[in-house]
Amino acid sequence: MAYCSSTTLVKREGLHVVALAVRCRSWTCIDCGDQRKRQLIAQGIGGVARTYIVLTTTNRVDHSADVEAKKIARGWRVLRLRIMRRYGWKKLPFLAVMEKHKSGWPHLNILARCGFIDWHWLKEQWRDISGSPGVKIRKITNRAILAGYCAKYCSKAAEKFATCKRYWQSRDYDLRPKPQQTFAASTRDGWVREELPFGKWCHEQLRRGWKLKWNSHWSVEARPNPW
After folding, report:
1. Are 139 and 57 in a shared domain?
2. Is the whole model's pTM more than 0.90, yes or no?
3. Is the dihedral of CA 72, 78, 84, 86 positive or negative?
4. Same structural domain for residues 69 and 161?
5. 201 and 118 within one domain
6. Which pairing describes strands 192-195 and 106-112: parallel, antiparallel, or unpaired?
7. Does 196 have pLDDT greater than 70?
8. Is 164 found in the same domain as 55?
9. At which of 169, 189, 210 does a domain end?
10. Do β-strands 94-100 and 167-169 pair in parallel, antiparallel, or remain unpaired?
């Protein structure tokens, strides 16, 4: 069901109506896709990464892109542990974003908050793990460069391969202040799901639509869904 265009949660409090859009959060949704990309870019910048890494694998006729994506995802977990062990780091905060190359093959873009990593050593480790020497590593020297990487790779990437995640991060990557606990609508609190008789969701449409549906004297509040 296209929740973003057809469904809303409604709660009546006397002559006051609160309308809350039900969002699907799908990357392919015209309403939610851009929001998801903006959130991912903000996450990337919020981690204040100092190193940018790209991992690739060699194209093989006996493997599919989905198989290679899983291989890269598993390989990064192993490589991360090897990096931490070599440099004596107790943690290696990161954000990993899967990208579909123009060849159709997966690449993994990684933003990491860490110190120096020797490229020659990293290349040999990745060859041992994946069978491919395809590794790039660059130092991020300022916030403008970080923002550029995030805008480029977090917005165009986040590709879906089979059951692999589009992106994932360590719990300690994002340094932004934690948001306050968001409001959660529940049917136990008097919220009911209703079909919207009009198209794409927006505040003004909700206000006009609910006032016409019930009574012009009713007070209507349209809240964005804090997902």
Report:
1. yes
2. no
3. negative
4. yes
5. no
6. unpaired
7. no
8. yes
9. 169
10. antiparallel
Instruction: Grade residue 104 by pLDDT with cuts at 50, 70 and 90.
Output: confident
Whether residue 25 is found in the same domain as residue 81: no
SS3 for 190? coil
Residues 6 or more apart whose CB falls under 8 angstroms from that of 67 comprise 162
Q: What are the Cα distances from residue 114, in Å, to 2, 99, 120, 140, 226?
A: 42, 22, 17, 10, 32
Residue 186 in any domain: the answer is: yes
CA dist 120 and 134 (Å) reads 11
Q: Are residues 123 and 52 in the same domain?
A: yes
Per-residue pLDDT, averaged over 130-142, amounts to: 92
Q: Which residue type sits at 11?
A: K
Does residue 68 belong to any structural domain of this protein? Answer: yes
Tokens of 175: 């340094």
What's the number of domains the chain is made of?
2
pLDDT digits (tens, 9 = 90+) for 56-65: 988 776 778 8
Predicted pLDDT at 140: 94
pLDDT in tens, 170-189: 999 999 998 765 555 555 57
Strand ranges (DSSP E) for 5-147? 7-13, 16-21, 51-55, 94-100, 106-112, 135-139
Same domain, 199 and 96: no
- 10: β partners: 19, 192
Give the domain extent around 18: 3-33+181-223
